[in-house]
Amino acid sequence: MQHHSRNPWVGILDPNGMPSAHYRLAPIVVYWDVENCMVPAGCDPYTIRDRISRFLRQLGYEGYIRIIAVAANIDRIPLFVRQGLHWSGIRFHHLHTHRKQASDIDIKRRIRQWMRYVRGPRNLLLISGDGGFASTLMDVEIHSHNTMVAYNEHSVSDLISYVGYSQFAWRELLQY
């Protein structure tokens, strides 16, 4: 497993790259840009929630995991994928629009709202590759929350590589 960590000295990750006690037990919210990081061919959508959970557990996180998938243009997501995500327990939000960047705007709004209501250490995993999230994730880090990024290797923005205490390739994450 390739685990890229930065700034382990800030107290979120210990010197071994594992989450410190406060973050290990803290809840984890996952925001997933489904159009940017689609379910790969050959990967059963019914198993995605379990794969993400196993991956996070393997990294040492023990808190409750909530996964929210967002898509602006549902026509790009096959019906069997939407059904699989829904039945696996992933909340799937269809924005009913074809506007460019609609998913990004919605996820940023959700992250800001999440930051307004959470107290204490929390973990956020963003599944995307869009550099438009860099400033939003930096805000999350400034508020002492742990940020992780899973990205699509073929469409990752250079900006996204500068945020997130831990970064992972989307396909790597799904191997669990």
TrEMBL record:
Pfam families per record: NYN
Transmembrane regions: none
Taxonomy, superkingdom: Eukaryota
Domain NYN as annotated: residue spans: 28-161
InterPro entries the record matches: Marf1, NYN
UniProt-recorded name of the protein: NYN domain-containing protein
Organism whose genome encodes this protein: Brassica cretica
